[in-house]
C-alpha cells in the first residue's frame, strides 16, 4: 500500500515530515537553543553528539523533555547463549523471536520515578503451571517443535501457557511516589489535537507463530508531542480457529504538570465469533484478523483498570 501524507497536519514551524504509516506522520520542528528538548544518541553504549531524530542505525535513542527522560533501545533477537540464560531464569522456553535487550522507558529525573517495558519481565508473568494453557491439539505440536529448536538448551520444557499471554503493565521503579488505583481516564480529546509529533518509535519485545497456528506478540509504540506523550504496550494473540486476545497498557504523561495515567484493558473472544462479525460487515476475515487494529473494537472487554501518579 502506498503511503500518503495528505492527511498530515502541517504548520509554519514544521521543517521535516515523514509518513511512518498511513494517516500517521511524524514532524520535527524548529527548537530554540533553550527549548525543553534534548536528544541524546548512543551507539554501543557510547555518547554521541546531540541530534534530533537519530538515524535508525543507532541502537538507543534517549532525550529529555520537561524533566522526563524517554528512552528506546532496539537490538537484534537474542542468540543461543542469552536464550539459554533467559530460559534458566524464567523456567520456561522463550518465544521464537525474543528481543531480550529491547526496552522502552519513561523516567522522571527529579523524583526518580520510572516505568520500563522489557521482554523478560513480561514473560515472567506468563502462567508457568500449565493451568492457563489453551487445550488444543496444536499445543503438543508446538512443544515438540520448541524442543527441537532449543535442543542445545539443557532446561526441560515444562507445561506452561504456550500462547505467552501476559498481563504485563510495565515495570515500575520508584523510591517514593507510585501509581495508585484511580478513576481518572486518559484525556483522549488532548490526544486528538493536531500537535506535532517530535518523536515516534516502535519496539518489538517478542513474537511467536505458535507452530504456524497463529501468532502471539508483544510490542510497544511511543509517540511524544511537545506537551504530552502516549505509550502503548500491546499483547496480541491469534490462535486460528480458537481465540483472539488483545491486552493493552497505555501510559499517558502530561509532561508539564507531571501527571501520569496508566490504563490497562484486556479484550478477548472466540475466533469464530469474531470471524462471523467480520463476515456480517462484508469484510475479508482472513486479512482483517492479521491486524489487531482491525478487530480491537469487536472484542468485548474482560478486564479494565486505571492508575495515576502526580510527580510534580
Order of helices and strands: EEEEEEHEEEHHEEHEEEEEHHHE
Strand content: 35-45%
* Through-space gap between termini: 44 Å
Sheet with the most strands: spatial strand order:
7-12-13-14-15-16-17-11
Shape: globular
Number-wise, the strands total 17
Please bin the fraction of helical residues: 10-25%
Structural class by sheet pairing and helices: alpha+beta
Largest sheet: 8 strands, antiparallel
Radius of gyration: 21 Å
Short structural description:
The protein has 312 residues and is of the alpha+beta class. It has helices at residues 80-90, 119-123, 138-149, 188-191, 271-280, 285-288, 292-295; strands spanning 14-21, 24-29, 37-43, 46-47, 60-65, 68-73, 97-98, 103-108, 113-118, 171-173, 180-181, 199-208, 214-224, 228-239, 243-254, 259-270, 301-310.
Description:
The protein is an alpha+beta fold and 312 residues long. It contains seven helices and 17 strands. The strands form three sheets. The chain has an eight-stranded antiparallel beta sheet with strand order 7-12-13-14-15-16-17-11. The longest helix is centred in the middle third of the chain and has 12 residues, at 138-149.
Helix-strand blueprint:
Layout: E1 14-21, E2 24-29, E3 37-43, E4 46-47, E5 60-65, E6 68-73, H1 80-90, E7 97-98, E8 103-108, E9 113-118, H2 119-123, H3 138-149, E10 171-173, E11 180-181, H4 188-191, E12 199-208, E13 214-224, E14 228-239, E15 243-254, E16 259-270, H5 271-280, H6 285-288, H7 292-295, E17 301-310
Antiparallel strand pairs: 1-2, 3-4, 3-5, 5-6, 6-8, 7-12, 8-9, 9-10, 11-17, 12-13, 13-14, 14-15, 15-16, 16-17
Amino acid at each position: 500500500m502506498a503511503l500518503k501524507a495528505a492527511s498530515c497536519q502541517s504548520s509554519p514551524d514544521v521543517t521535516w515530515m515523514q509518513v511512518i504509516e498511513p494517516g500517521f506522520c511524524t514532524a520535527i520542528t524548529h527548537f530554540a537553543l533553550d527549548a525543553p528538548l534534548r536528544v541524546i544518541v548512543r551507539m554501543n553504549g557510547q555518547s554521541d553528539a546531540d541530534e534530533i531524530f537519530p538515524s535508525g542505525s543507532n541502537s538507543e535513542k534517549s532525550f529529555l523533555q520537561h524533566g522526563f527522560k524517554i528512552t528506546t533501545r532496539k537490538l537484534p533477537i537474542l542468540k543461543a547463549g542469552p536464550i539459554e540464560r533467559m530460559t534458566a531464569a524464567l523456567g520456561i522456553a522463550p518465544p521464537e523471536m525474543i528481543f531480550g535487550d529491547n526496552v522502552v522507558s519513561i523516567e522522571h529525573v527529579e523524583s526518580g520515578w520510572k516505568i520500563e517495558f522489557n521482554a523478560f519481565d513480561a514473560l515472567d508473568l506468563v502462567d508457568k503451571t500449565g493451568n492457563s494453557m489453551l487445550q488444543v491439539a496444536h499445543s503438543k505440536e508446538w512443544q515438540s517443535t520448541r524442543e527441537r529448536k532449543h535442543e542445545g538448551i539443557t532446561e526441560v520444557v515444562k507445561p506452561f501457557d504456550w500462547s505467552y499471554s501476559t498481563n504485563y503493565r510495565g515495570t515500575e521503579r520508584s523510591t517514593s511516589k507510585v501509581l495508585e488505583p484511580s478513576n481518572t481516564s486518559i484525556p483522549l480529546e488532548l490526544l486528538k489535537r493536531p500537535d506535532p509529533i517530535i518523536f515516534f518509535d516502535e519496539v518489538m519485545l517478542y513474537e511467536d507463530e505458535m507452530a504456524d497456528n497463529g501468532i502471539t506478540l508483544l510490542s510497544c509504540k511511543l509517540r511524544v508531542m511537545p506537551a504530552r506523550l502516549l505509550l502503548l504496550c500491546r499483547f496480541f494473540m491469534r490462535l486460528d480457529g480458537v481465540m483472539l486476545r488483545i491486552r493493552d497498557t497505555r501510559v499517558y504523561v502530561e509532561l508539564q504538570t507531571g501527571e501520569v495515567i496508566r490504563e490497562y484493558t484486556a479484550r478477548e473472544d472466540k475466533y469464530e465469533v469474531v470471524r462471523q462479525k467480520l463476515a456480517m460487515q462484508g469484510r475479508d476475515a482472513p486479512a482483517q484478523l492479521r491486524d489487531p487494529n482491525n478487530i480491537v473494537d469487536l472484542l468485548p472487554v474482560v478486564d479494565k483498570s486505571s492508575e495515576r501518579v502526580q510527580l510534580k
